[in-house]
Amino acid sequence: MCSNKTLLLASIALAALCLLQFGEALPSIGHYGKRFDPMGGIDFIQICLNNCAQCKKMFGDYFQGQTCAESCLKFKGKAIPDCEDIGSIAPFLNALE
């Protein structure tokens, strides 16, 4: 028979192994105050930031990518810019002279 101390150490070792193996697979819902859909696994802030980067590539100096990214963080991805929708990117466009 195993002693209680042996069982406790085995349980701790098993828990540590599980954390190491599966720790990165679990979503970090509270990290940076992310807006995260746990059912669908959607990170709205990351989508927002990716769209800002895509619009910056498309429009170059006409698009304020930094301001767009800051709004993604400030509003937690609630207003995702769509590069093909002028209404969603209008606040980030500027006219170059």
UniProtKB/TrEMBL annotation:
Domain of life: Eukaryota
GO BP field: ecdysis, chitin-based cuticle; neuropeptide signaling pathway
Any matching Pfam family: Eclosion
GO molecular function, one term: ecdysis-triggering hormone activity
Disulfide bonds: 48-72, 52-68, 55-83
InterPro entries, per database record: Eclosion
Keywords: Disulfide bond, Hormone, Neuropeptide, Secreted, Signal
Signal sequence coordinates: 1-25
Subcellular location(s) per record: Secreted
Tagged with keyword Secreted: yes
GO cellular component, one term: extracellular region
Keyword Glycosyltransferase carried by entry: no
Primary role: Neuropeptide that triggers the performance of ecdysis behaviors at the end of a molt. It triggers adult behavior patterns: larval, pupal and adult ecdysis, and plasticization during the molt.
Family indicated by similarity: Belongs to the insect eclosion hormone family.
Record's protein name: Eclosion hormone
Organism in which the protein naturally occurs: Drosophila navojoa
